[in-house]
Design brief:
Elements (H helix, E strand, L loop, with lengths): L12 H5 L2 H9 L2 H12 L2 H19 L6 H20 L5 H33 L1 E5 L6 E4 L5 E4 L4 E6 L5 E13 L8 E5 L3 E5 L3 E7 L2 E8 L2 E5 L7 E3 L3 E6 L4 E6 L11 E8 H12 L2 E4 L8 E7 L3 H11 L2 E6 L2 E6 L2
Parallel strand pairs: 5-6, 15-18
Antiparallel strand pairs: 1-4, 2-3, 3-5, 4-5, 5-8, 6-7, 7-10, 8-9, 9-12, 10-11, 12-13, 14-16, 17-18
Helix pairs in contact: 2-3, 4-6
Organism: Chitinophaga fulva
InterPro entries: FecR (IPR006860), FecR_C (IPR032508), Ferrdict_sens_TM (IPR012373)
Protein name: DUF4974 domain-containing protein
Length: 341
């Protein structure tokens, strides 16, 4: 059954192209369905990728403009004149039937050509689009089509695409990732989108995290500009060592300085300097999918220093328990942290 309005599912490009409501929105700018599709697109990065692909496909098929050369026009006219000449030489007894079949054949060929062109364009488009996700406890090394490198943190998703003219490189991030952006003199720039901010970069190494309405950017080298979606916040340009955190719920921005140990997770470890237990609890919940309950809020403020390797969750819990003198128990799908009795 063909739906006439968007819902929460992720459509395929084919489904969007064949959706009457989507077609009206793209080709007729129908205001009665615009809000519905804009809401659907804003719900997830992959929705935006699918919608843009389908939109370009519809526009290309319906409104592609082409200015032929003089040689092409001459050749086309010659072929057309030759075809007319041959038609005049055909026996007249087939008359109307021949004309009907000719028009039907022409329609079939036009449809086939349009289909082949659309398929070729969509195949090319797919080569410039990449979507990667990680599960709890998993990190992945990704080489993007422009040779930029990304280390994707656990429980994260990255979608990448390059514009049709190759000028703009864009990525959408949910979670955390460490970027080593390849400088491309032919490109206008590289932009990473999160639900609350856009980070524009050129030849830069940086750590970007977006979880629970909080966006954090740490710049290790190069230069980036942060454009917040909140109109009350001004854009910020970061220098190496800058750490900027934005809380979308409180609508507050804070800035500080740190070093490369902030991104030590890329090497599979945490380098902790006077770090509260609450920071490690965030990692257990965000990166390993654990639900942690602490029976005394003061426990969260206990500090720890040193290096914790992330290869084994059991090792992390062992260190927490022994270094901070914490009793760790589990009931069903929840871990409980408490003082030792």
């Amino acid at each position: 059954m063909q739906r006439d309005k968007p819902d929460n599912e992720t459509y395929s490009v084919t489904a969007l192209v064949g959706n009457p409501s989507f077609v009206r929105w793209v080709l007729q700018n129908d205001p009665t369905v615009a809000a519905q599709w804009e809401t659907w697109i804003a719900a997830a990065p992959e929705h935006a990728v699918m919608a843009q692909t389908a939109r370009q496909l519809l526009l290309q098929i319906r409104f592609a403009e082409h200015e032929p050369t003089a040689e092409t026009l001459t050749a086309s006219y010659t072929r057309f004149a030759h075809s007319i000449s041959r038609l005049r030489q055909e026996p007249t007894k087939r008359g109307r039937l021949y004309a009907v079949l000719s028009w039907r054949n022409a329609a079939i060929w036009i449809g086939l050509l349009a289909g082949v062109g659309a398929a070729s364009w969509y195949t090319w488009r797919q080569k410039t689009t990449l979507a990667v996700s990680t599960t709890f406890g998993e990190t992945r090394q990704i080489v993007l089509p422009d040779s930029s490198r990304v280390t994707l943190q656990a429980n994260s998703r990255l979608t990448y695409r390059r514009s049709l003219n190759g000028q703009l490189r864009e990525a959408w991030l949910n979670g955390e990732a460490y970027f080593r952006v390849n400088q491309d003199n032919k490109a206008a720039g590289f932009v990473v989108h999160t639900p609350d901010a856009d980070v524009t970069v050129l030849g830069t190494t940086f750590d970007l995290k977006q979880r629970h309405h909080q966006t954090t950017v740490f710049l290790q080298s190069g230069k980036v500009r942060i454009d917040f979606h909140d109109p009350q916040q001004t854009s910020r340009i970061l220098s190496p060592g800058d750490l900027v955190e934005y809380d979308a719920q409180d609508r507050k921005v804070s800035a500080s300085r740190t070093d490369s140990s902030y991104s030590s997770w890329v090497q599979g470890k945490l380098t902790l300097v006077d770090a509260p237990l609450s920071d490690i609890i965030d990692i257990l919940e965000n990166n390993y999918g654990e639900k942690v309950v602490v029976n005394d809020e003061k426990i969260k403020q206990r500090k720890i220093e040193g290096i914790i390797y992330l290869e084994s969750k059991a090792d992390i819990l062992f260190i927490i328990s022994n270094v901070l003198d914490i009793q760790i128990s589990r009931r069903n799908d929840t871990m409980y942290f408490s003082n030792r009795k």
